Amino acid sequence: MQEQVSISTAEDNADSTTLASRTFDSIKADIISGQLAQGSKIVESDLALQYGISRGPLREAIHRLEQMKLIIRVPHAGSRVVTLDTRMMEDIYTAREALEGMAARLAARLMPDDEIAALSALLDQHEAAIGETDGKAYFQREGDIDFHYRIAVASGNRWILENLNGELYQLIRMARHQSGQYPARAPTALAQHRQIAAAIAARDEELAEILMRRHISGAWQIVKQILEEQHD
Amino acid sequence: MQEQVSISTAEDNADSTTLASRTFDSIKADIISGQLAQGSKIVESDLALQYGISRGPLREAIHRLEQMKLIIRVPHAGSRVVTLDTRMMEDIYTAREALEGMAARLAARLMPDDEIAALSALLDQHEAAIGETDGKAYFQREGDIDFHYRIAVASGNRWILENLNGELYQLIRMARHQSGQYPARAPTALAQHRQIAAAIAARDEELAEILMRRHISGAWQIVKQILEEQHD
DNA sequence: CCTGCATAAATTGTCAACAATCTGATTGGT
DNA sequence: ACCAATCAGATTGTTGACAATTTATGCAGG
């Protein structure tokens, strides 16, 4: 078999150098895609067998997933896949608002002109994609996260980038994949992305931060509503 | 009466339930205090011997320290204690500014009245301490971080709290312990803390965030200056 | 004297067995 | 019938040996 899902997170350590690392990627993908259900118990021996490795590297993978908050572990008792409740998602979106707001500010200060042009081109692509698929593909294909990712990179702040890309985005992806697809607010999102890009191009740090925060805050309101409806 | 420092980290896994966890705490302390020098190589077998445990739990401890960015690890090659350069510290302070700014905003919205009173009392304590020791003790004793910690708690946002307390503060502590003690800007810091506390008491979210950001940004300017002087 | 390759030493990655701890059910008492 | 203590089963924590990989060493050739 071995064909695994491998949805990929932008950086593909598909055949990474170490067993633990590959297993980590596999389990991560399985959690995000929902093949490992939320709240389900993780039994080391079972998973080790399932992935065809020994418990050593598997434990390492689990520990990394714990730090990433995809798994919750209690000493001597075992670990479970995290359960995404409304409270946790709110914390995540709030943290994201603070971090990405700052990232947008820094991007407005530091992003090279050619990258700004590329960012604009990316949005053109998105617009075309929205036209073709009636907007559905925008979030499913994660073009949304793609935009945010570029700004995080442009911020030049490694800490912010690593935390957004390595943790927060993963959890948001997980929520998207599982709580059904999100509504077609693609045109709205695109328009806001354009505003943000414009502020960055104008080197207006203050505005870039404000717009980004408003954008994320608005996204949370939508997500929150969906979560609450589903919880009935 | 328990008065010891112990201010921080809240959870004392002094005699934690698992070997790996205790070792993790030990190594962390050794790195922060400088007993394990920056950039020094970490050899698993050596450390295992030194701490009197086998390589298994030690590896787990190292992995956790890696996630905390106190150690840098490259597959098959080994790990070294992180080297705090100016660039990294700037990233950390910038991220902290974003996160704590948000935390202050949330605290202004959510902090219970009695906790606000306690916060004010804490600042009185600090003022007394400054009077006694001429300000030196303020940063050495980490009363500073204590104040910030309380606000992070009051934010009610677990993600922000865990990242500040579990990662950013640790790195800042490390920088303090090693690059010599910081200057006596204690009175300034205290005054700013009072302003922030007042904004929270007044439930002025906007002001609380702005003041906190200015406070941290100012702190960075001082630290940056010291780092650059030392680097000559 | 320097460069490059082959070999050896050191170090990390992986494995399977053993010990410690927790969970759940069973049994006995009230 | 209900609660508590005890015991068995399952699961995690720990260990030491083995395999794979990298880094250092030394030798031959230019």
Can you describe this structure?
The structure is a homodimer of 232-residue chains. Chain A is mainly alpha-helical. Chain A has 2 domains: 80 residues, Arc Repressor Mutant, subunit A (Orthogonal Bundle); 145 residues, Four Helix Bundle (Hemerythrin (Met), subunit A) (Up-down Bundle). The first copy, chain A, has a 3-stranded antiparallel β-sheet with strand order 1-3-2. In chain A, a hairpin with a 3-residue loop joins strand 2 and strand 3. Chain A starts with 18 loop residues before the first helix and ends with a helix. The N terminus of chain A is likely disordered. The interface between A and B is medium-sized, with 29 and 28 residues. The structure holds a DNA duplex (30 and 30 nucleotides).
Distance between the termini of chain A: 39 Å
Major protein interface: A-B, 29 and 28 residues
CATH superfamily of the largest domain in chain A: GntR ligand-binding domain-like
β-strand percent of chain A reads under 5%
Rg for CA atoms of chain A: 19 Å
Mean pLDDT over the residues of chain A: 87
Tell me, what is the CATH class of the largest domain in chain A?
A: Mainly Alpha
- What is the structural class of chain A? mainly alpha
Q: What's the multimeric state? A: homodimer
Number of domain modules of chain A = 2
Specify the number of helices of chain A: 10
Low-confidence stretches of chain A: 1-14
The main sheet of chain A orders its strands as 1-3-2
In the CATH hierarchy, the architecture of the largest domain in chain A is Up-down Bundle
The CATH topology of the largest domain in chain A is what? Four Helix Bundle (Hemerythrin (Met), subunit A)
Order of helices and strands of chain A: HEHHEEHHHHHHH
Strands of chain A, total number? 3
